[in-house]
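Translate structure to sequence.
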């Protein structure tokens, strides 16, 4: 909660007084009471701050789940956005990455899109270009793409059309280095990660600033 409150302040979503009030509340008796309710019911609401907390389960590719706490200030309208997702087309990546993204992006009124979703599409590349151009932003994950450069081609298309995007760089277990990305894309908003728990925590706290811009 303290990290989330400071993120909102730095993104100019709340002022410094509201930030300190939220942090103070999270340390006090009321905050602890709401924490107990959250972990027993998966949901809690504080009318004083119009604060809604929801406990969600995100996934690793190993099948393990981990907790994700979603904090939302209610009563704020969110415009509809579309996020194009590019990744290696294997079942383990598809089901896990898309599930996690849908959960984390839900409070921002974001709909996910990806290539191959329209069965009428004949030209796959044309379909990808069309979907990226229509997207408000994109997410590209290079997990399991060694020797399969398609995700970088998609990122290049987004770059050419000036569509903002996140690039997730996966580093195998036991290593500190991620798979190398093309030098032309090295300027992208890239998150290096070893597991999805690490990645989606970083992404979650980046979203208020990203959407504010």
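Result:
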């Amino acid at each position: 909660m303290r990290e989330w409150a400071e993120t909102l302040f730095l993104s100019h979503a709340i002022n410094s007084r509201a930030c300190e009030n939220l942090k103070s509340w999270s340390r006090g008796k009321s905050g602890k009471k709401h924490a107990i309710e959250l972990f027993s019911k998966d949901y809690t609401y504080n009318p004083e701050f119009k604060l809604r907390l929801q406990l969600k389960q995100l996934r690793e590719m190993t099948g393990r789940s981990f907790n994700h706490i979603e904090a939302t200030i209610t009563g704020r309208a969110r415009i509809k956005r579309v996020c194009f997702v590019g990744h290696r087309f294997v079942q383990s990546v598809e089901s896990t990455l898309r599930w996690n993204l849908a959960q984390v992006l839900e409070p921002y009124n974001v709909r996910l899109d990806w290539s191959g979703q329209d069965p009428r599409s004949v030209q796959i590349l044309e379909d990808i270009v069309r979907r990226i151009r229509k997207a408000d932003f994109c997410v590209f994950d290079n997990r399991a793409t060694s020797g399969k450069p398609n995700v970088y081609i998609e990122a290049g298309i987004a770059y050419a059309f000036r569509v903002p995007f996140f690039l997730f760089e996966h580093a195998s277990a036991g290593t500190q280095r991620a798979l190398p990305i093309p030098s032309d894309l090295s300027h992208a908003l890239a998150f290096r990660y070893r597991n999805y728990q690490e990645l989606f925590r970083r992404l979650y706290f980046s979203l208020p600033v990203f959407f504010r811009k």
